[in-house]
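This part of the workshop introduces the protein records we will be handling. Getting from the letters to the C-alpha cells is the skill we practise here. The record below serves as our worked example for the rest of this section.

…
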Amino acid sequence: MPFDAITPADLDPADPVGAIAAAAKRCSNWGRWGVDDVLGTLNFLDEAKRREGAACVRRGASFSLAQRFDMDGPQKGWRRRTNPVHTMLDTGTDAERGTQGFPHGLGGADDVVFMPLQASTQWDGLGHIFDHGVAWNGRRAGEVVTSDGDLVTGIETTAALFAGRGVLLDVGRAIGTDGELPDGFAITTDHLIATIEAQGETSRVGRGDLVVVRTGRLSRARRDLAEGRGWGDYAGGASPGLSFTTADWLHGTEIAGIATDTWGFEVRPNEFDVAFQPLHQVAIPNIGLFIGEMWDLEALAVDCAADGVYEFFLTAAPIPVTGAVGAPVNPIAVK
C-alpha cells in the first residue's frame, strides 16, 4: 500500500467511522507475528537494528528527551490526570534531630511520588486504546485490560526493547515559521517526506527505527510559561500533530515507535467534525504501534541542526509497572 493511500482532500469530515474502519483494514498487523504476540511493531526492532543504532554514536554527546516530573507540570485534571506529587518521607531535618532510629549517627532521606503514569514524558502501551472494544491483535478489550491492569500487553513486556536507531524529524524547522508549527496544523505524509529530504540521508526512516517528530509546540508552551501565561492548553488543547492520513506511512515504514513533543501526538482539533484521537484508534490497536507523547526534543533539535546529523542511538525504556497501559520514560539520545 502506498504511503499516500489517502490525503487530507480524501477525508470526509462527517465520516470518521468509515475512515477509521478503512484505515484499520489497510494497515492492520493482526496476526503478523502470531496470535500470541504482545509486542506489535517492537518486533521490527531486532538485534541488527540495535547494532545499527549503536553505530550512530560518534561524539558521545547525550541528550535527555524527558520533561520534568513535578507539581508545576501541564496537567489540568483531564481524565483525572494530575501533575506528579512528590513527598519526602525522611529528610535531613529528621537526621539532624536523630529521630530516624538508625545507629551510630547514620541518617538518610527517602521520598515517594504519586502520579498518573501519563502525566509527563511517556509511552502509550498497546493496551491504552481500543477499536470498537477490540485491543491489539484482535483480542477482546475486556479480556486484556481489567481492574487488575493490562494482563496481556502490560508495559513491562517492553522493558528491554526500546533501544536502537533514533531519527529526529524536525518538521517545525523544516516547514514551519520560526521553527514552530501553528496549533491545528496537520502534518501529512508529504510534510514528513519533505522534512526527510530537507534534512538529508541521516534522517531516512525505515524498519525498526524509533522516530521523534518535533513540532515546536513545547517551545511555544515554555515561552508562554516564561512570560507568565502558564501552560495554557498544552496538555489537551489545540496543537499541531500528525494527520490521520499518515496512518499508511506509519504502517508502511515499519517503524518500531514514534514520539512527539505534543500531548496528543495527532493534530488537534482532529480532522473530523466529531472525533477524538482517530489516529490513535488505528495506530495502537490495529498497527500495534507504540506512541510517545510530551517528549522534550529542543536541545537535541538544536544539536542536529548544527551538525546536520539527525540519527542517534536512542534508549527509551519505560518504567516497567506491571500491567500498566502506559509509563513514564527518560529517553536518552546519544550522538
